[in-house]
């Protein structure tokens, strides 16, 4: 016998027969393991997963079948089995880091899988990309958010970032909104009369948290070239989600991510500061578990080297102090500390103008109005504000840049200086005195004696 010009010996035929029998036996063994992983006994499923993982790490015959079976068990009804599948995948990547891309693609198929849904009349069946996630999709996203990345995997980080944005589009995009016929509480729903407002269920809230964790982990590895084009055009969905995120901690995480994006790639920074200004009116963010992250973000994003307009910086500080004076003393102190740190970095002449005495500020305003009798009345929400043509401070302006905050006396620290809490009086003194302005300590109680003297 000859094959492609090579003589086939009796020994070669025996070797081929043995290899075929071995592969057939291994395929049967693998099929038995897959069947065992679907057994009703939780113990049997855990043992099957352990054997599959050991084969995948040491003997990667039929690697894709082994990996697919292991990934699919992330959606197992038994929590213990799903946790074991996640742990085995993590051990696989620790042993073979070069398999991250293969594992990511398999997990991506799970995240983007479609499920059959029934028409509302029960007569038609169709495949639809459901915005609500299954347990397998949620656990796959949680695993991706914990996946380690290296500097040489910029392409993988970009693909992961695109996947996270796609999940956002499914939850809040127009295509997902069109398919929100199901009124299940675990799915986003459009409210009547406002098609762009989405009500988010508890399941999607957990999904958003996992996606945001993954985006923050992958973002440092994303190259600017990969962010351009189609990827940059999808950032609009992040701004939309920031308005409807169900919990304050998610909104703070979104603000932090948007600042990193706008600061790194110069993407619509004006829109970010307008969103930040709007969110400061929501008092629930000051009571969130990560409220300190908000103050850290404010101190960083209001620095002059980010090119923030002066009027925007002062308007944000005034709103922060106005809301902060009604919060707990810890939050009020952090608001004063943020104002002190930010004003210290602003030009001295502007600070002196903003912090001028109230009687002088009132006298200047009266003089201006005597020379200009053209007064307009604007309806802003639930009350009327009188503004001169020269432009007075309007605290209800949607855009902080046009609020006129830098032309108004910053009266907020004087309210803090009259409070009983010594920390707040000390913080107000640092804000109102430009000559002695300095950054306040993060925790004044570290020096107990000086704090008690207050």
How would you characterize this protein structure?
The structure is a single chain. The chain has 454 residues and is mainly alpha-helical. The chain has three domains: 1-95, no CATH class; 96-115 and 130-246, no CATH class; 268-371 and 380-454, no CATH class. The chain is built from 22 helices and eight strands. The strands form four sheets. It has a two-stranded antiparallel ribbon with strand order 1-2. The protein has a two-stranded antiparallel ribbon with strand order 3-4. Strands 5-6 form a two-stranded antiparallel sheet. Strand 3 and strand 4 (125-128) form a beta hairpin. The protein is elongated, with a radius of gyration of 30 Å. The protein starts with a strand and ends with a helix.
């Amino acid at each position: 016998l000859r094959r492609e010009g090579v003589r086939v010996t009796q020994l070669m035929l025996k070797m081929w027969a043995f290899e075929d029998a071995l592969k057939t036996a291994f395929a049967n063994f693998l099929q038995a393991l897959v069947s065992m992983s679907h057994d009703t006994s939780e113990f049997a499923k855990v043992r099957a997963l352990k054997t599959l993982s050991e084969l995948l790490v040491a003997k990667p015959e039929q690697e894709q079948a082994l990996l697919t079976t292991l990934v699919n068990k992330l959606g197992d009804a038994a929590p213990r089995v799903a946790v074991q599948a996640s742990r085995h995948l993590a051990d696989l990547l620790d042993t073979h880091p070069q398999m991250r891309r293969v594992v990511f693609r398999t997990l991506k198929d799970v995240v983007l899988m479609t499920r059959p849904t029934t028409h509302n009349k029960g007569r038609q069946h169709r495949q639809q990309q459901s915005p609500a996630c299954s347990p397998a999709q949620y656990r796959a996203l949680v695993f991706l958010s914990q996946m380690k990345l290296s500097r040489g995997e910029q392409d993988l980080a970009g693909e992961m970032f695109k996947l996270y944005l796609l999940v956002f589009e499914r939850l809040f995009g127009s295509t997902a909104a069109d398919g929100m016929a199901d009124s299940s509480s675990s799915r986003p729903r459009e409210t009547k009369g406002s098609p762009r407002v989405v009500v988010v269920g508890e399941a999607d809230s957990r999904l958003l948290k996992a996606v945001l964790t993954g985006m923050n982990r992958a973002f440092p590895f994303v190259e600017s070239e990969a962010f351009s084009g189609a990827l940059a055009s999808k950032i609009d969905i992040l701004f939309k989600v920031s308005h409807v995120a169900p919990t304050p901690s998610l909104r703070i995480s979104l603000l932090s991510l948007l600042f990193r994006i706008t600061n790194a790639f110069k993407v619509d920074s004006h829109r970010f500061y307008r969103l930040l200004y709007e969110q400061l009116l929501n008092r629930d963010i000051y009571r969130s578990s990560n409220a300190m992250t908000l103050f850290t973000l404010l101190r960083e994003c209001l620095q002059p080297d980010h090119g923030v307009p002066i009027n925007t910086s002062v308007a944000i500080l005034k709103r922060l102090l106005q809301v902060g004076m009604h919060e707990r003393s810890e939050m009020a102190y952090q608001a004063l500390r943020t104002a002190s740190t930010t004003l210290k970095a602003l030009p001295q002449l502007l600070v002196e103008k903003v912090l001028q005495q109230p009687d002088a500020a009132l006298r200047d305003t009266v003089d201006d109005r005597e020379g200009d009798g053209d007064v307009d009345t604007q309806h802003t929400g639930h009350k009327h504000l009188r503004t001169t043509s020269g432009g007075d401070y309007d605290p209800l302006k949607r855009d902080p840049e046009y609020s006129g905050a830098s032309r108004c006396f910053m009266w907020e620290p004087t309210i803090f200086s009259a409070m009983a809490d010594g920390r707040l009086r000390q913080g107000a003194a640092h804000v109102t005195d430009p000559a002695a302005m300095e950054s306040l300590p993060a925790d004044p109680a570290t020096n107990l004696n000086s704090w008690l003297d207050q």
